[in-house]
Amino acid sequence: MLTxxxxxxxxxxxxxxxxxxxMGNATGESVHERFIAEVKNWRRRLAQPQxxxxxxxxxxxxxxxxxxxxxxxxxxxxxxxxVARGLGADSTDEHPITGHVPSPSAADELRAxxxxxxxxxxxxxxxxxxxxxxxxxxxxxxxxxxxxDDPSAAARASDSRIRAAEIRQDESRP
Length: 174
Known about the structure:
It is built from eight helices and no strands. The chain is mainly α.
C-alpha cells in the first residue's frame, strides 16, 4: 500500500524530499533509493502494457496494475489498511488517506489522457492501445462539452473518434 501511495504522489508531481518529510525522518534520497525501481516499473508498465501479462492485473486488461483500473477500490483498501493500523490524524476517520484527496474532474482525466496519448507516440505504443486512449478522450471531451456547453470540446471529441477509427481500420488491413 505504501508503494501505491508513493506512485500516486510521484505521478502527481510530489518531490522525493516532500515524500521523505511526509514519511517521518526519511530523506528524499533514501525514499528515492527505496522506491525508484517501483516508479520506473510502474511507468514502463503503463507505457507498454501489451508487452506483459500479470495475473494480478486488471480483469479487463490483465496487464495494468489494479490501481489503474479500479482507483477507488485501491483507495478503499489503502484507507482500510491505515485504519487497521491506527494511522491518521483522527482515529474516527474512516478515510484517513483518501478523505483529503479530491475526486478527479473530467479536466483532470483529460489532461492524463492527453499525456498518455503524447507518450504513446513517443514510445510507439500498440496501435489498439492508442485507439482506446483516443476513444476514452472522445468520451471525456463529450462530457466536458455538455457540462460547460463548449462546442470546441465536441469538435475535438469528433476528431479523436475519427483518429481512433482510422487507427483501427489500419490495424485490420492485412
